[in-house]
Amino acid sequence: MTARYSLALRLVSAIRLGAVLVMRPRRPVAHLYLGPVTETGSFVRSGFAVLCGARTRRLSVVVEGLDGLGPQLRLCRRCAPLVQALAPSSPYAGRVLVAFDDMAAAFAHLTPADFETAARWCRTVDETYQVGTLSGLVLGPVPLVARTEEQRVRKRVDEVLLKRRNRLRNAELSPEERADRAARRELEADERARVQAARARADRIARANDRANRGQYLMPSQRELLAQVANE
Fold it and tell me: Who's near 47: CB < 8 A, 6+ residues apart?
């Protein structure tokens, strides 16, 4: 059930099912581990092997997940297929999931916190859409207005996901595309400022006309403004 899904989803699924993400220092391959760790929670206890049984030296626990570990990190090819072994009773183990109902059931063990973590660990824009689809299937649609704590948690997952997607999308832009976007943002900011200034001037003109029609005193700036309008 894991082969077609991103590294972020596979890892949060494995961790939710009891595994620990570990790796050797300065090595790009992460392993899954089931067993005791040191009292500090930083290392695997000596004499215990990772899930795939690979012979390794001392392994450290990856506390921060994929954040800051760089795009070269990959999950051990022998550990990845064993994620489904963490839940051997699952009827979805080893299946290629197509139906939305099957996808929702296969990942039903994930919590909103898991999806939030997966959103932060996404490393491509496509992965963010995958996490968004599955979070919608498992957690339900994003509420327009979050009135309950459950709705606020659900909304936060979507906010984290959108923020990560925008960050990744910007990172994938070429220097020319970044310059083009910066120029467009500058033009849009200038246009907004022009519209706001025009609205503010129209409001001042309306107030001055209203006072003049009522026969009320006009300040010098208001008289000057009405004179400018008359000459336009």
Answer: none
Q: For the chain, what are the domain ranges?
A: 18-86, 175-231
Q: Tokens representing 194?
A: 């022009």
List Cβ neighbours of 59 (8 Å cut-off, separation of 6 or more). Answer: 22, 23, 24, 31, 33, 43, 44, 50
pTM across the whole model: 0.59
Q: How far is CA 116 from CA 119, 130, 150, 158, 163, in A?
A: 5, 13, 14, 8, 11
Alpha-carbon dihedral 223, 228, 229, 232, rounded to 10 degrees: 160
Environment class of residue 34 by beta-carbon count within 10 Å: exposed (0-12), middle (13-18) or buried (19+)?
A: middle
pLDDT tens digits for 79-126?
766 655 554 445 445 555 667 777 777 788 888 988 988 898 888 899
- With residue 60 as reference, give the H or E element that holds it: strand 60-61
Q: Residue 30: what are its φ and ψ, rounded to 5°?
A: -100, 145
Task: Tell me what pLDDT residue 81 has.
Answer: 64
pLDDT per position as a tens digit, 156-172: 999 999 999 998 888 87
